[in-house]
Amino acid sequence: MRSLWAIGLALLLGSAQAALTDVTLDNGMRVIVHEDRRAPVMVSQVWYRAGSMDEFNGTTGVAHVLEHMMFKGTKNVPPGEFSKRIAAAGGRENAFTSRDYTAYFQQMQKDRLALSMQLEADRMANLVISDELFAKEIQVVMEERRLRTDDQPQSVLVERLMATAYQAHPYRRPIIGWMDDLQNMTAQDARDWYARWYAPNNATLVVAGDVKADEVIALAKQYFSALPAGALPERRPQAEPAQVGVKRIVVKASAQLPYLLMAWHAPTLKDWAQDTTPYALQILAGVLSGNDSARLQTSLVKMQQIAVNASAGYDAVSRGPGMFMIDATPAPGKSVDTLEKAIRNELERVQREGISEAELARVKAQVIAADVYQRDSLFYQAMQLGEYVTAGLPPAALAGRVGKLRAVTAAEVQAAAQQWLQDDRLSVAELDPQPLDAQPARANVPGVRHAN
């Protein structure tokens, strides 16, 4: 019987045979095409290298607000018509904003790619941001903040922890923005953001699916080449000062259970061919959580019954600095302090004793299998390419990711835990649950889906 490792590697090698084309148009727009002929569909994504980390105090959330406004019409396409045309062609579309980028996508039959490019090129250059439509949409965004952050105690804790853990770096600001900034934002703020960052030389077009690279490149030239490059602002380094001791906060919010969040400053992938620590930290996250036999689940939830859940997470790919995070909810009758001590004991055990070769092999198989199965989706093939190149990494870094993970040693995992999971890099946030007060019902805001 073939092992999961062998099966995953075979799938990966088969996926790697798909052709990848990476070109840059004369106006600076990058075009990446990943050919995958398993189904007659395609996904097209336009990535702008502008996210919340590029914002200024006083206008936090403007990147996300502009994402909303991108669907509100251009000189050529009336408000709401963009989505209607995609739907009429049998496709689906949406967008998302992060700390590092804003991206827009369509999933359609392969023969409708021209429509996708035509519409994206139009709103890259011809967006109309009227005061009237902005006034309506900013209300939608504020309600979105209330629903997804203000009314979610764990989300509030994460937001406050980020504002504490980062002293200077713009990652300390929430992607959706502070409410006060949203309340005082104007249509001109959105227009300024659009003029500053929405240009072909700050964008990457990623197309994946049953397409031919030369035809995609020809369409990209047809629709985007006429758009002039913009004079992009200078991006200055925004290094985070070294932390000099543990930071702790307690957040009081209406909630049923307490909650613990621990975050350590950690490196991200910069030189993919030479870096080893980010890959070791990915394996460490898998050692600590990810399945029923992982250390946090086994020790804290099953054996000691101190927690009802516990997990670790780490993202190696970003434009800015990274965080290695552990979150957990204490079991009834157990304190957050007891839970934190138990987590620390597990980390100290890895730092002191390391991990076994069998444990390393199991986690590698799990991480690699997840990577392979994710690549089975056209959307995530394009998504990963967009994330990597927007972070300044070449497509080769994505193609080589599995090989780098396979090369991680137990000693490297132990060394990464020893070096990075130290108190001088740590911020701790505790949710102190307050009585659940009855919340008055709010009127529905068009465009926002209310939680039940």
UniProtKB/TrEMBL annotation:
Cofactor: Zn(2+)
Peptidase M16 N-terminal domain sequence ranges: 31-176
InterPro entries xref list: Metalloenz_LuxS/M16, MPP/UQCRC_Complex, Pept_M16_N, Pept_M16_Zn_BS, Peptidase_M16_C
GO MF, one annotated term: metalloendopeptidase activity
Keyword terms of this UniProt record: Signal
Annotated segments matching region Disordered: 433-452
Protein name per the record: Peptidase M16
Family the UniProt entry places it in: Belongs to the peptidase M16 family.
Annotated ranges, domain Peptidase M16 C-terminal: 184-366
Superkingdom per UniProt: Bacteria
Signal sequence annotation: 1-18
UniProt-listed GO biological process terms: proteolysis
KW Transmembrane (keyword) present: no
PANTHER family from the UniProt entry: METALLOPROTEASE (PTHR11851), MITOCHONDRIAL-PROCESSING PEPTIDASE SUBUNIT ALPHA (PTHR11851:SF49)
